[in-house]
Every structure is written in structure tokens, then in C-alpha cells.
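testing teh design pipeline on a random one, pls ignore if ur not involved
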């Protein structure tokens, strides 16, 4: 068999967003207002097994930044709700399943995403706010 030269990533599952080809930054703002700047190296993706490869959750956890993810990052709970303050246009489109889970999250905005599903393409730096409250804390 010859090499796949179609331009698709053979490691990518069907329907998975394209991973970034170049490095970029994500500034994570924690619930107390602290900021952590992460330099994303596409060659290191995936950083860990939680969330989609290259997702905001997967990158955060790979850099020691905690984001609640009660379901393990499989788009089944909405606890990893974040707000993409800057760079949202470089993120993958939300699926119907993600939007359904976001309907249950507290404090949703037009720039809300599930960190386990949101995969930036690397064309822009991002600012991501981790909200102070989520569904698990409200029970």
C-alpha cells in the first residue's frame, strides 16, 4: 500500500477537527482571576487522554491547569464549561451534543464552549476564562 497523500491526517478520526500546524498561546484565566500562559506545541498533542486531542481541556490538563470534567472529557456533563474571550473564531464548531450539554451549564454566554470539545486550529492566540461556578458546584 502506498502512503496516504490525500492531505488528511491518518491519525484523525472522521469528524474530528483539524489539529494546529503551528504553535500558539492560550491564556487561561482561573476563577480567582489568576492568569496562566500556555505555549501550545502541536508536536506534543495529545498531552493527555481527557477530551478531544488538542482540546482546551486536554491542553490545560497537560500544563497543570485544572478544569472540572466530571465525565472524563467525553461531552456527557457540561462541567468543563469555559468562555473563550478571545480567539473564538479559530475554534472548531460546536456539535449538537456540545450545545445540548451547554444548555445545562451555569452562566452560558455566546462564547461558551465545553473545554473537552473545543479544539483551536492554531491560527490565533486565545484567552479562555474558567468560570467560578458550574453545574457540579450548584448541586
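output:
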Amino acid at each position: 500500500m502506498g502512503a496516504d497523500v490525500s492531505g488528511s491526517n491518518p491519525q484523525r478520526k472522521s469528524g474530528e477537527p483539524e489539529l494546529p500546524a503551528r504553535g500558539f498561546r492560550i491564556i487561561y484565566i482561573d476563577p480567582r482571576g489568576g492568569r496562566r500562559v500556555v505555549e501550545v506545541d502541536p508536536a506534543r498533542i495529545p498531552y493527555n487522554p481527557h477530551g478531544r486531542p488538542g482540546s482546551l481541556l486536554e491542553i490545560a490538563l497537560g500544563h497543570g491547569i485544572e478544569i472540572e470534567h466530571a465525565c472524563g472529557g467525553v461531552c456527557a456533563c457540561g462541567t468543563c464549561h469555559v468562555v473563550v474571550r478571545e480567539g473564538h473564531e479559530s475554534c472548531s464548531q460546536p456539535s449538537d451534543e456540545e450545545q445540548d450539554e451547554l444548555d445545562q451549564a451555569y452562566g452560558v454566554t455566546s462564547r461558551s464552549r465545553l473545554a473537552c470539545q473545543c479544539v483551536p486550529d492554531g491560527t490565533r492566540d486565545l484567552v479562555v476564562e474558567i468560570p467560578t461556578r458550574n453545574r457540579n458546584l450548584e448541586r
